[in-house]
Amino acid sequence: MRFLFCTEGRELSENAIRVGGKIAKVMEAEATVLSVQPKPDYLHAILQHTSAIDVDLQEVFDKGAGVFLEYAERGKKVLSELGVKARAITVQGHAADEILAEAKKGYDFMVIGSRSKKGETVMLGSVSRKVVNKASIPVIVV
After folding, report:
1. Which residue among 20, 54, 72, 131 sits deepest, i.e. has the most Cβ atoms within 10 Å of its Cβ?
2. CA 43/CA 31 separation, integer angstroms
3. Which SS3 state, helix, strand or coil, does residue 141 take?
4. Is 4 exposed, middle or buried (CB count within 10 Å of its CB: 0-12, 13-18, 19+)?
């Protein structure tokens, strides 16, 4: 049994890892924690119209790579503390597309945060919505 956990480093993602990790533990599953870093061209598209920011986008991207790996490693640590064998990985690209591509690599379940805030009407973020609608495996949304 293999679980794919998705994180972007926020508390909601870590909570999803804790909840899904308890299920993975009971099922004696192995896990992968995935964090997706945007590609430099995506950052460039966001910042190109902002003249107030003068930065070297490649330098920002290079430093950011460590941050996304840290997100995945934190998720791995949460799972390890629950007794779930896990590995941490990062990829570059658009989050939903990369999550769906990874999910096709032999996973049985996926766990993703909803990005809803406590007290709001239940709404999925754009990434979790796309993943739920297109996934070929069951998705646990927390």
Report:
1. 20
2. 29
3. strand
4. buried
DSSP string, 72-99: HHHHHHHHHHTT--EEEEEEES-HHHHH
> Which domain range does residue 14 map to?
2-141
Query: Contact at 8 Å (CB) between 61 and 40?
Result: yes
Residue 75 maps to which CATH number? 3.40.50.620
Bridge partners for 3 per DSSP: 31, 109
| CA neighbor of 127 nearest in space, from 29, 62, 24, 36 | 36
Q: Name residue, tokens 């308890």.
A: 22
Question: Residues in the chain, how many?
Answer: 142
State residue 28 phi and psi, 5-degree precision: 55, 45
